[in-house]
Amino acid sequence: MRAIVSAAVAAILGTALLGAIAQPAAAATLDSYESDLVSQVNQFRAGKGLTTLRVSDTLTVAAKWMSTDMATRDYFSHTSLDGRSPTKRMADAGYPAYSTWTGEDLAAGYTSAAEVLQGWINSPAHYAVLTNPAYRAIGVGRSYGSGSTYGWYWTADFGGVIESTSQATAPAPAPAPVASGYHAAWAGQSGNPTLAPGQTAQLVLALKNTGSRGWVRGQVGSQANIGTSAPLDVNRSDLASGWLAPNRPATTTTSYVGPGQVGWFAFSVRAPSTPGVYRLNLRGVIDGTTWLEDPGIYFLITVR
What we know:
The chain has six helices and 17 strands. By secondary structure, the protein is an alpha+beta fold. Strands 7, 10, 12, 15, 16 and 17 form a six-stranded mixed beta sheet that branches. Helix 3 crosses helix 4. The termini are far apart.
């Protein structure tokens, strides 16, 4: 089963305003299939005498978020389940979407970039987006949802502004981590336990997803865990009880935590045999991608 859908919107302001709004962004990260789609779109446009689209970091964040959200929550629409339009999602990701031309093409059920592009070429609405001469930038994302209606979900977001540094003479910034769009804030936690030696207790930590990308349990590079800190990744086998690893107490209790939602992490600690007060420092982490904010989270475990 396959499906495609297209949306195009436009907002036009003066050229001077467009230049002022464009801001530098972190380096975009595309997998080989996403990069292939960008290349094929540009080859197609070149054959029509159109300009080459440059990869936009913020459009990439918006596109990856949308594909992941559709794959995880099993729907197919330009309006995401949180009620946002394509333009709103692009703007939330940091792109100046309300001051330039924007458009979005979606595809589902296709496994290769060539199939996606051909599906769009065969559709008049998608073809119009692909051949719009106003576009200068693109962001692409794809995601797979096990048990979802279509399996693979693809998103291409287009915009009329090429993001660049505000000072042409400034040195190019070092590439940012893949983590663009992943952020968190402390939202609550259970109390500090007092235990007898060898006794266990369950602790709960809540982190709010303040980024633009969802946390997807079971998906490498998108799964949110809580890790030990101070120092980072310190082995806490002295307290671990059923943890993912001696430095990873838990992942989210739900399969998906979207932007603005609160993720819950539940785990157990076992009291050491020696009485005293043991401090467990924790921090959110997207393994393989980035550590999250709020490094000051901790529990105090008192052993009688």
